């Protein structure tokens, strides 16, 4: 089932982003679209990483339990995180961060597609 396979990919992406942001926040700062200038920004990026890791664990839990309905809802709601990240980066950096905007926008759309596939039983 493509929905389950893509859900595993989303889980791994969230867990990878979370681990990376917690372990090496400066390395992921450009991808997130956040400027790192001091300890406050590092703490913020680590918080974002912790959030992503928790989302990954939530998706993994629904996958492991084979709960397709809650999995589809979790994926769809997780897309709101990407959409809010997109809006925050767009407001702060605008067109100066096209890669970050593409990552957040693509992730948002990708999660919605995966949620639809899971909901449809595909």
Largest sheet: none
SSE order in H/E notation?
Answer: HHHHH
Shape from CA axes? globular
Provide mean pLDDT, rounded: 91
Number of helices: 5
Strand fraction equals under 5%
**Which structural class is indicated by helix and strand composition?**
mainly alpha
Q: How many strand elements?
A: 0
Query: Percentage of helical residues?
Result: over 70%
What number of structural domains do the residues give?
1
Task: Throw out a few tags for this protein.
single chain; 122 residues; mainly alpha; 5 helices; 85% helix; 0% strand; globular
Detailed description of the structure:
The protein has 122 residues and is an all-alpha fold. The chain has one domain. 85% of the residues lie in helices and 0% in strands. The protein has 5 helices and no strands. The longest helix has 26 residues, at 39-64. The mean pLDDT is 91.
SSE inventory with pairings:
Blueprint: H1 2-23, H2 25-32, H3 39-64, H4 68-93, H5 98-119
Helix pairs in contact: 1-2, 1-3, 1-5, 2-3, 3-4, 4-5
């Amino acid at each position: 089932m493509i929905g389950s396979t893509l859900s595993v990919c989303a889980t791994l992406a969230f867990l990878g982003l979370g681990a990376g942001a917690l372990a090496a926040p400066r390395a992921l700062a450009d991808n997130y679209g956040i400027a790192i200038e001091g300890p406050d920004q590092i703490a913020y990026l680590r918080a974002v990483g912790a959030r992503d890791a928790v989302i990954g664990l939530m998706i993994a839990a629904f996958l492991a339990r084979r709960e397709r309905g809650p999995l589809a809802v979790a994926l769809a709601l997780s897309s709101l995180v990407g959409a809010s990240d997109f809006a925050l980066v767009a407001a702060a950096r605008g067109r100066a961060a096209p890669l970050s905007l593409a990552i957040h926008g693509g992730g948002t759309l990708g999660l919605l597609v995966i949620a639809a596939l899971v909901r449809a039983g595909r």
